[in-house]
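Mods, move this if it's the wrong board.
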Amino acid sequence: MKPETAANLYYRLALVLTRLPWSWLRALADGLAWVWGRIDARESRVTRRNLELAYPGMPAAERQHLHREILRTTARQALETLYLWTRDPARNLQRHLRQRHGQDLYDAALAAGKGVIVVAPHYGNWELLNQWLASRGPFAFVYAPPDNPAGDAFLQRVRSGDNVRQVRAEGPAVRQLFKVLKDGGSVAILPDQQPKNGDGVFVPFFGIQALTMTLVNRLAQRTGATVLFAWCERIGPDLEFALHVQPAETGIADPDLATAVATLSAGIERIARRDPAQYQWTYKRYTLRPPGSGETDPYATARHPH
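Not the wrong board. Structure tokens:
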């Protein structure tokens, strides 16, 4: 089956699924989260280990409760995203983006013509954020294409739009982003996934050294673009979100790379701490360890406590 044909099939299936009432989809997501916990699926194991690393002083009972909440919001976020992808973006923003904080800040930065770098951590629903950015004008965002060509074709379909330019995170991506910013455009980057060795530096994230990308800082230093943090935070159980746009600390463009990347990581952490259940704790953030530290992959020995 051709990738485009498979992508069309995936879309039709998503369309059928998301025509169910949201209350049903929410219950389905909660059931999926329960199964993850019951069988101790990968999502459950990785989340548990991340919470042990990031919140070592948290009482066990509190950590177990947060673990359950993270699985629930992760499953809901997956179905929320399918729901948003299969509906008109303008309708989504009108019905589901209930609050907008800092929208004028973004519009002013874009109007200044010096380029805007939107730093969007994996918090809340970042796909709704993409739809909001597209509503303000053309923008480009970086994404890691799935290994499956059909999956990539599906993403191209559901994320496409007149104002959306999807840039694959490979070879020429950085040159494309530089050009967008030099032309006064907007670029969105998800900053909290582990880069390859050589493409990042180790800085603290929740007190643990984490390999963190240098792309945001290099773009900011070389273009002089305004750097803003942005996220769509869940504020209710029924597809209710609040947009937040805030300026990054000036240190994010510091000539000293370690200072700049540490500033980026601290900004991500501040957002994640707003409501830890909305952050993507199912991702293995700490697999690579600092050279010479003697540390090993902390997920390699993660097991169910029972």
